[in-house]
């Protein structure tokens, strides 16, 4: 065998001699994990395993595929709850496997928990993904930014007002552009339509889901700050976190 | 010491119990065989097993001679429709209360030792609603297919032979929500039945949807033969839901190796229902103060030594200890018989216990 | 296949009974770690209350509760009056008829409720979508809202499936994990609140379920010709499934009872379809930023099979996300030439329509995209006349008229004394 070719093959092996080729659809991520920072990898595994929910959500996996058989996103994209649990299962000895998922894979999950309901081993793949997403945000991982950027406006709104989808979103084109002409039709007179809703707490309220008291929003911002949410977001979307901080200050949430 | 004159009590007249009774009787020692049901033969007879894996041997060839022996041999006294209700005394001189389940009459008997062979029950698939058993037509258990095979007529509820049949493995097995253990035989039995369906209906398509194939030991040849000779298809995965479309059965699952998610229409779905301890085992454990393990099977003193109940003079045999095949149950019956005879002989020689 | 009629099951009555019992046992062990764990949590809650570590907001007789059987086999108390309406961010934001129809039903039935502006959403839509929260924050938001309800002496009734699911998870964590409990307690102290945990977490669909006979008694239209398909929200019955309502007499206990039960009680035909257990495609993140995936799933896994298999007149469901996704996701496929379409509304809108509520002023159907006109026509509602009424109503609002707001009947309970009174604006019956 050509020694250069052999050297090239060997260079694909990890430090521990494993070759992480990646599943079909996971090639990019395998590459990414090869280049990943080992310290972060280990940290990700540790944070997952130390999460208070971990013991409840993870047991062991016999690869039966029941979770995937009921998984909605699997119908459309390369995402399998079975793979998630398998990689979590092996993550202690092979942190690369878990890290491979962190950047893109986990963001495909619908969080519908169909997998949890059917697992014969009582694993909760969706729950594990929720924890992993939290960790990805905390570490500001590469594609987490990409996943969350289109989300910024909503993120800011939810963190400062406690509501997120609001009638004024009907008047802008950014979100829900595939709602078609109906949306435009509704948008024309949206203020009157909204003013005519026969529920006092909602009538005429355009920038919130309902009328929220100032003090209520202040309390929410205190909670978000104290519980470390604003801090975690700052690793991924710094400007959103800064804006929330400013708004919190104005509201007296210190 | 009257010990050797006292009969050996065998509870349960399935493969293990019958084999135990036969072996003890052939030593010239009297046997009292107590069976809760009205017929002898246990599960293979009660469920009309057509043939036994792995050699397609008709059930009667195996069970018939045992039943005939116990019914005709002068050393064997058979009490049908009876259960053992309680006991006292010590090895060689146990006083047992035997209750007739119909008349509720209690008979007291003195026995030298006791062999418990209360067998198993097939898992009731109604307990796991995702397979639709008991709710949808043409969803049956392997036990019911066995009856159809015996009659030589495999048909759906409309009387027509199925074109496409799915066997779903591990129903009520290897699942923490129902029974977490492996039943050890249903892989082999399902494949055996798949072959028999193909023999009967050569144009049918047969699918085995399995988690792992556990055709242990010599049963492995069933696995190979089913693919090489009969073209049976194997899909690795577990079914998440069966849905009745009003005409056919839609089976949803993931092929974890080849196909990805699948949703396929079948005419018949056969559930490889697992093995679980029956009410007879629980009742006998109560009557004889035996301990059950976490799964409800009788717990031997040492897990590897099935016959030793941990109580002097009480022996265990067959599927009341762990899921097993007929061939294993027969050996266990023999092993327990040996223990009972050994104990009788030791008591006769007045060897201190 | 039509549900609610069991002839085809070919089962004797006794068999059927056994089946129901067995399947409820089986399902009870089905979803969460174990049912024992769940029941242990409820026991632990009692212990903590006894020790004075937490306050439990009990479903007392003041709330006139009705018992329902849950998946765990336990009887759960559903409050029927003096409820604190915990609103849903999505419903209120763009399908307001969901709420107005529900308030209208309660007010028609003479049942008092509190519509409090001192509440935030659960923030869990955002959490499941983006991972930008954590158990402590979620639990603190949960308990802040629960405390607000406690102050008002009204029992929380949760509108959103995700809030309901998230709160069940949070309650489990707060009760079972001391560390989380203490961290949440410290945060709540900063906002001047105490740790009050509701004895029961109740989704509004469970309220409709227990009130279905009262609703049906006020039915104005003959619904027997209306064919209904139901979609249940994943977070009500898959996320900590133990706590959701099942009824042996509704679909043999094999699927959650609420929503199906209201369709049956109103006399409409309930139809089954092969992808019943599938989600709607919402996906939390996908509905906002991966629209193609959410839309494709909603249309090709739900809408199209539902229409093809059932030919139903309406799809009813009980959650923000489901109504949104299933309704709005029909636009693009229809524009591309696909033909299957079905109106999607909430069970509260469906029930209110049957009770004679105004389709536009009360049920706000104009916010829904998929064509609801054939449904209204089939129910015998003159939608054209109703729409004209709505138009002139809109003109009046435009001219400065205040809408006639739906109001709760007078309450019987006073806000709790010695707690931080926030705002009290409802008339109290003395």
Describe what this molecule looks like in 3D.
The complex is a heterotrimer of chains A (254), B (353) and C (430). Chain A is mainly alpha-helical. Chain A has helices spanning 3-11, 27-35, 38-50, 54-57, 66-69, 81-90, 95-102, 114-118, 125-138, 142-148, 152-161, 181-188, 190-195, 214-226, 229-236, 238-251. Chain A contains 16 helices and no strands. In chain A, helix 3 packs across helix 7, helix 6 crosses helix 9 and helix 11 packs parallel to helix 16. The longest helix of chain A is centred in the middle third of the chain and has 14 residues, at 125-138. By secondary structure, chain B is an alpha/beta fold. Chain B folds into 2 domains: 8-119 and 278-348, FAD/NAD(P)-binding domain (3-Layer(bba) Sandwich), CATH 3.50.50.60; 123-274, 3-Layer(bba) Sandwich (FAD/NAD(P)-binding domain), CATH 3.50.50. Chain B is 27% helix and 29% strand. With 430 residues, chain C is an alpha/beta fold. Chain C is built from 19 helices and 12 strands. Chain C has a 5-stranded mixed sheet with strand order 1-10-9-11-12. A 3-stranded parallel sheet of chain C has the order 6-5-7, sandwiched between helices. In chain C, strands 2-8 form a two-stranded parallel sheet. Chain C is globular, with a radius of gyration of 21 Å. The chains are: A mainly alpha (254), B alpha/beta (353), C alpha/beta (430). At the A-C interface, helix 8, helix 9, helix 10, helix 11 and helix 13 of A face helix 3, helix 4, helix 5, helix 6 and helix 8 of C.
Can you lay out the helices and strands and say which pair or pack?
The complex is a heterotrimer of chains A (254), B (353) and C (430).
Chain A (H helix, E strand, L loop, with lengths): L2 H9 L15 H9 L2 H13 L3 H4 L8 H4 L11 H10 L4 H8 L11 H5 L6 H14 L3 H7 L3 H10 L19 H8 L1 H6 L18 H13 L2 H8 L1 H14 L3
Chain B lengths: L7 E4 L3 H12 L4 E5 L6 H5 L4 E2 L4 E2 H14 L3 E5 L1 E9 L2 E8 L5 E6 L1 E4 L3 E3 L16 E3 H10 L12 E8 L14 H15 L4 E6 L9 H9 L4 E4 L2 E6 L4 E7 L4 E7 L1 E6 L1 E3 L1 H9 L26 E3 L9 H23 L5
Helix pairs in contact in B: 1-3, 1-8, 4-5, 5-6
Chain C lengths: L1 E2 L9 H16 L6 H17 L3 E3 L8 E4 L5 E4 L4 E4 L2 H6 L2 H12 L4 E2 L9 H7 L4 H17 L3 E4 L2 H16 L1 H13 L5 E3 L5 H7 L1 H6 L9 E5 L2 H4 L22 H6 L3 E3 L14 H4 L1 H20 L3 E4 L2 H9 L2 H5 L8 E3 H8 L18 H7 L3 H16 L32
Parallel strand pairs in C: 2-8, 5-6, 5-7, 9-10, 9-11, 11-12
Antiparallel strand pairs in C: 1-10, 3-4
Helix pairs in contact in C: 4-17, 6-7, 6-8, 7-8
């Amino acid at each position: 065998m050509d020694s250069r070719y052999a050297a090239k093959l060997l260079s694909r092996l990890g430090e521990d001699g494993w070759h992480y080729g990646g599943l079909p659809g996971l090639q990019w991520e395998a590459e990414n994990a090869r280049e990943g920072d080992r310290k972060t990898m280990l940290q990700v595994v540790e944070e997952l395993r130390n999460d208070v929910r971990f013991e409840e959500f993870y047991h062991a996996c016999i690869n039966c595929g029941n979770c995937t058989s009921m998984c909605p996103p699997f119908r459309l994209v390369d995402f399998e709850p079975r793979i998630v649990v398998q990689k979590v299962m092996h993550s202690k000895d092979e942190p690369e496997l878990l890290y491979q998922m962190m950047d893109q894979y986990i963001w495909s999950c619908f969080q519908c928990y169909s997998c949890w309901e059917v697992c014969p081993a009582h694993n909760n793949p969706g729950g594990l993904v929720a924890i992993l997403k939290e960790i990805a945000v905390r570490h500001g991982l590469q594609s987490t930014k990409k996943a969350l950027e289109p989300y910024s406006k909503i993120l800011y709104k939810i963190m400062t007002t406690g509501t997120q989808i609001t009638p004024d979103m009907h008047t802008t084109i950014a979100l829900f552009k595939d709602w078609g002409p109906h949306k435009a039709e509704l948008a024309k007179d949206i203020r009157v339509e909204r003013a005519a809703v026969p529920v006092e707490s909602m009538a005429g309220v355009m920038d919130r889901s309902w009328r929220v008291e100032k003090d209520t929003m202040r309390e929410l911002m205190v909670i978000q700050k104290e519980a470390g949410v604003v801090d975690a977001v700052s690793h991924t979307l710094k400007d959103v976190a800064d804006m929330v901080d400013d708004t919190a200050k104005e509201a007296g949430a210190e | 010491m009257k010990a050797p004159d006292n009969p050996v009590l065998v509870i349960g007249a399935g493969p293990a119990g019958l084999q135990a009774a036969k072996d003890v009787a052939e030593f010239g020692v009297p046997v009292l065989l107590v069976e809760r049901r009205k017929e002898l033969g246990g599960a293979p007879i009660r469920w009309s097993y057509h043939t036994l894996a792995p050699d397609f041997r008709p059930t009667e060839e195996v069970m018939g001679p045992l039943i005939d022996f116990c019914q005709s041999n002068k050393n064997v006294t058979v009490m049908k429709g009876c259960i053992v209700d309680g006991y006292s005394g010590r090895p060689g001189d146990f006083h047992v209360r035997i209750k007739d389940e119909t008349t509720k009459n209690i008979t007291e008997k003195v026995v030298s030792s006791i062999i418990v062979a209360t067998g198993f029950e097939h898992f009731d698939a109604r307990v796991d609603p995702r397979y639709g058993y008991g709710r949808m037509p043409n969803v049956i258990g392997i036990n019911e297919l066995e009856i159809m095979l015996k009659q030589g007529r495999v048909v759906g509820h409309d009387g027509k032979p199925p074109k496409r049949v799915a066997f779903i493995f591990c129903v009520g097995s290897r699942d923490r929500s129902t029974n977490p253990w492996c039943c050890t035989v249903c892989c082999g039995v399902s494949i055996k039945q798949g072959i028999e369906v193909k023999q009967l209906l050569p144009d049918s398509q047969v699918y085995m949807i399995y988690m792992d194939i556990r055709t242990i030991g010599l049963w492995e040849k069933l696995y190979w033969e089913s693919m090489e000779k009969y073209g049976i298809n194997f899909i690795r995965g577990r079914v998440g839901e069966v849905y009745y479309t009003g005409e056919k059965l839609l089976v949803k699952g993931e092929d974890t190796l080849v196909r990805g998610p699948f949703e396929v229409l079948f005419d018949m779905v056969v559930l490889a229902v697992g093995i679980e301890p029956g009410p007879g085992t629980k009742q006998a454990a109560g009557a004889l103060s035996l301990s059950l393990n976490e799964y409800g099977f009788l717990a031997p003193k040492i897990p590897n030594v099935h016959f030793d109940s941990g109580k002097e003079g009480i022996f265990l045999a067959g599927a009341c200890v762990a899921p097993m095949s007929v061939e294993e149950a027969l050996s266990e019956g023999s092993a327990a018989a040996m223990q009972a005879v050994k104990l009788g002989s030791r008591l006769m020689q007045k060897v201190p216990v | 296949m039509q549900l609610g009629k069991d002839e085809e099951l070919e089962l004797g009555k006794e068999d059927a009974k056994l089946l129901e019992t067995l399947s409820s046992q089986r399902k009870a062990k089905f979803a969460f770690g174990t049912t024992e764990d769940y029941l242990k949590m409820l026991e632990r809650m009692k212990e903590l209350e006894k020790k004075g570590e937490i306050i439990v907001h009990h479903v007392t007789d003041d709330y006139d509760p009705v018992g329902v059987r849950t998946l765990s086999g336990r009887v759960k108390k559903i409050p029927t009056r003096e409820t604190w309406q915990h609103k849903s961010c999505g419903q209120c934001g763009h399908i307001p008829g969901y709420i107005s129809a529900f308030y209208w039903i309660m007010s028609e039935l003479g049942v008092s409720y509190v519509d409090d502006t001192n509440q935030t959403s659960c923030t869990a839509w955002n959490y499941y979508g983006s991972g930008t929260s954590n158990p402590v924050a979620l639990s603190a938001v949960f308990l802040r809202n629960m405390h607000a309800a406690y102050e008002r002496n009204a029992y929380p009734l949760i509108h959103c499936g995700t809030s309901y699911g998230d709160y069940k998870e949070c309650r489990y964590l707060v009760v079972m994990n001391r560390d989380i409990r203490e961290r949440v307690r410290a945060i709540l102290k900063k906002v001047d609140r105490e740790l009050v945990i509701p004895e029961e977490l109740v989704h509004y669909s469970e309220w409709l379920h227990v009130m279905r006979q009262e609703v049906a008694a006020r039915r104005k239209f003959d619904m027997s010709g209306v064919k209904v398909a139901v979609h249940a929200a994943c977070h009500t019955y898959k996320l900590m499934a133990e706590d959701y309502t099942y009824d042996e007499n509704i679909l043999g206990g094999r699927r959650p009872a609420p929503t199906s039960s209201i369709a049956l009680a109103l006399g409409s035909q309930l139809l089954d379809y092969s992808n019943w257990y599938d989600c709607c495609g919402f996906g939390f993140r996908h509905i906002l930023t991966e629209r193609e995936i959410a839309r494709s799933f909603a249309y090709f896994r739900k809408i199209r099979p539902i229409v093809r298999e059932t030919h139903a007149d309406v799809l009813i469901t009980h959650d923000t996300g489901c109504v949104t996704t299933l309704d709005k996701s029909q636009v693009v496929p229809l524009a591309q030439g696909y033909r299957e379409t079905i109106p999607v509304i909430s069970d509260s809108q469906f029930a209110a329509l049957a009770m004679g509520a105004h389709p536009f002023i009360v049920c706000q159907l104009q916010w829904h995209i998929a064509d609801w006109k054939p449904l209204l026509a089939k129910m015998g509602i003159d939608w054209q006349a109703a729409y004209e009424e709505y138009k002139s109503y809109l003109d009046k609002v435009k001219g400065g008229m205040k809408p006639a707001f739906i109001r709760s009947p007078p309450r019987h309970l006073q806000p709790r004394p010695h707690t931080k009174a926030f705002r009290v604006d409802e008339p109290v019956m003395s």
